[in-house]
Amino acid sequence: MIRLEHVSKRYGNTVAVDDVSLEIETGLVCVLIGPSGCGKTTTLRMINRLMEPTSGRILVGGRDISTTRPEELRRSIGYAIQNVGLFPHMTVAANISVVPGLLHWDKKRIARRVEELLALVGLDPYAHAAKYPSQLSGGEAQRVGVARALAADPPILLMDEPFGAVDPMTRERLQTQFASIQQALKKTVILVTHDLDEAIRLADRIAIMESGRLVQYDTPEVMLARPANKFVHDFVGADHALKRLSRIKIGGYVKPAATVRVNASAQEIASALGGHRWGWVVDEAGRPVGWIDARDLPSAASLSEAIVRADTDEIAVARTATLREALSRMLGNGMKSIPVIDGQGRFLGEITLRDIETATAEAEP
Amino acid sequence: MLMFARLAGHDSIAFGGSVIGLLSLLFGWLELKPNRLAAGTGLSMWQSAGWLATAIVIVLWLICLALSLSGGKALRAAVIGMAANLLLFANFAFAGLTASGLLREEAAFSRVSLGAGIWISVFAAYLLIFSARQKLKGSPLWRGVVSWSGLLAVALLLGLGWLNDVSVVQEFMGNQERFSQELVQHVLLFGGSVAAGSVLGVLLGIWAARSGIAEKPVFFAANVSQTLPSLAFFGLLIAPLSALSSAFPALREMGIRGIGATPAVLALTIYSLLPIVRNTYLGLRQVDPAVIDAGLGMGMSRGQVFRRIELPLSAPLVLEGIRTAMVQAVGNTAVAALIGAGGLGYFIFAGLGQAAFDLIMLGAIPIIVMALVADAAMRFAVKAASPKGTAVPGQ
Asked: Does B2 score more than 50 pLDDT?
């Protein structure tokens, strides 16, 4: 657990951080967010003593950090920053080995750990360990940055816009990947960002700051539903209802639906559809590949002509996706329901527009 | 004119070099003097070395000329480079042979000097070598061969005594003991100054990069010292140093005097500061602040960040600064002879005093060679110090 007690940071007459008190529970992701200059980065940097508070104190695991030597403290806290800061003269493996090296791990253990971490962040150890940072793409460099921060398996991770310097698509991939890593590792993470979507996607708690002060500290759901003041309301924006949808996973709203095998006979189709007017068509592997309307059947010359074919990736959403993604997919395809698939692309059921409406009403915190 | 420009556009340096090489044949190639100091008569190459040697040289120049007009492939560049080296070798080899032949017929005190034609040929050959080097960036082996083979071949001629009848070499043999003494002195003067300048310059550079207060005065001082002419600088140091040494006899016993090595080393050290301070400063400043932040944030101490990150990342630029300082110091050290510090400048100024051109050359040639060698060695060091994964400065 990390606790900030009345922490302030002043430079002469300017106040960068103004009497911030904050408690971050173990294993949760706390996102510090706010406009630039609001003091979020300063707050982060005080937790590993890259900056010292002017007043107040910070406790990590119940211990005042000002009693620990800064170097020692920092070796027990992972640190990842926006510009990655990979050492350009060291290979990827050497970059990741820095903190374990500072902690005097033996060589074999370090080598094993490097391999483990590269695999964890989705990079092939054999292809990447010996590369230099200049040979990496932006996304790869950020991943190595995260791997380096996790190197000595620190219980706490400080991240300053860790996905800031890449294109939006890569950023989303990295965020998704980080979320699943975090689910497995359960680190206590403090992440600074100015990107609200990133905060909503990753945070268990959001701390929103304005000119040095902590304005609201809540779960994303509460913050979106009940902003503490006008500043938060404006910051969250007019589309906060949509943003709330991105906090809810599809999983709980999937319902069974009629499916027809792609090579089924007319008889099988009739029995599969039962009373339904239409059903999803799946291939041998169970992947949804289109749909069929019962009314088209008599007029069609053959079964395959009656099938409306569609690309699985175009129409279906994964069970791990959010309601917002499902809604966007529906609107994009002009459909009132879409199939939900598992990790292998197999049909699991469907989700309808009506389900999303229900979910929105239920999710009101 | 238009066509000339278009043709010359293929490789204007090599083209120019070849033309200059051909024109050099119009100048006196060797000079025959009745004695060491008297004015001589210029002899063209065909008059002295004969038609065969002249034809060989002309053919080589023409090959270079033709190739320079046909565009810049690496293979052509290698051929031009090798031809230039061969020309270098041929000029000296023929000169050595011809000099021996001429002296056999002449009176005992006669001298045969290298004439303007040979020196122009050397210049032209190095233009060709320079242009070939540029195009051989891809193959370090060929680059090395093209850069050095001619010079090594001439050194070999010297070592074998082939050039013993050329007047510069005769000057050398007459001054052998003095020459090795001044050569060592020269190396000690510039080597010691650059070593001291490196230590001081790196420290000042670190200080300037670290402290906002130090930055301006350090660069002001280094810049001002650089603008002073070297002779004036040596002169300026004479008065305070003489005053010091007469005030403290202990200093005089340590060899600190107004003239001699002390003011020379002092001035040369101060001269070498600017490039070293500047490059150290730039080297440290170009390290991405994010990298330093990451290092500190991961738990490196300030010293570890310096040793493991800042030092390896700035070392190539620092060495590049030392290279500049060294090449500059090799030349500046020649002037030190004027205040009694010795060095190869002694021969240059003695030669100027006696109007003995060969004596001047005896001092100048080794200085040029030394500058070339120092430059190449330091370039190699810069490359070796550049960490993999980062760019090599100056390439």
From this structure: no
